């Protein structure tokens, strides 16, 4: 009986984990190093259960002077608050959409290109990550414009067997991750190369694309049917 209850609890937990999503798919901001910029998005609860969660920001290799400010389902925090206070749990009712999420960046004069990841994790267990939301900030540099990052897309998307990258001349390496951040594969990329994912289960995956210097140039969401 205990084993049965454990299985049911685990199944429900995994189901909730897998059914939080966000939009839009592509979160990227390009701007000068003397202005505040931001990525705005919504978080969707696709389950029939209420989900309680906290958040944290993983800065990656972003410059030290950069400061972040987060707006969540409750309020907007001061710059420098990069982890949700324990007294301010976010509550997302079943099938609800939270429209007001925003990650703001104050560069403080520092230029750079970096991928920043916002993680939504369980109120009950911080090791249970419901969702990872990657976003790019390109501050005070023209590198994103030079490689036409806005034109890079995945096709077909959704897909059931393979995908390719359109406008991929400057993409030299890719990695594929589950929606919870687990790396599925990574490999060098060649123009017009197709990737077979027919053996993967249905769900949402993140495709991270890197240039010849190993810098992330774009992250896109891929739907596997």
Describe the structure.
- With 225 residues, the protein is mainly β.
- It folds into two domains: 1-141, Sandwich (Immunoglobulin-like), CATH 2.60.40; 147-225, Sandwich (Immunoglobulin-like).
- 9% of the residues lie in helices and 47% in strands.
- It has two helices and 16 strands.
- It has helices at residues 2-18, 143-146; strands spanning 20-23, 28-31, 37-45, 51-58, 67-71, 90-92, 97-106, 112-122, 129-139, 153-155, 162-166, 173-178, 183-188, 194-196, 203-210, 216-224.
- A five-stranded mixed β-sheet has the order 2-9-8-4-6.
- A hairpin with a 6-residue loop joins β10 and β11 (162-166).
Strand content: over 45%
Termini Cα gap: 35 Å
CATH class of the largest domain: Mainly Beta
Choose one word for the global shape.
Answer: globular
**CATH-derived topology of the largest domain:** Immunoglobulin-like
Number of separate domains: 2
Would you count the extended β strands for me?
Answer: 16
Task: Give the tags.
Immunoglobulin-like; five-stranded mixed sheet
Topology:
Layout: H1 2-18, E1 20-23, E2 28-31, E3 37-45, E4 51-58, E5 67-71, E6 90-92, E7 97-106, E8 112-122, E9 129-139, H2 143-146, E10 153-155, E11 162-166, E12 173-178, E13 183-188, E14 194-196, E15 203-210, E16 216-224
Parallel strand pairs: 2-9
Antiparallel strand pairs: 1-3, 3-7, 4-6, 4-8, 5-7, 8-9, 10-11, 11-14, 12-13, 12-15, 15-16
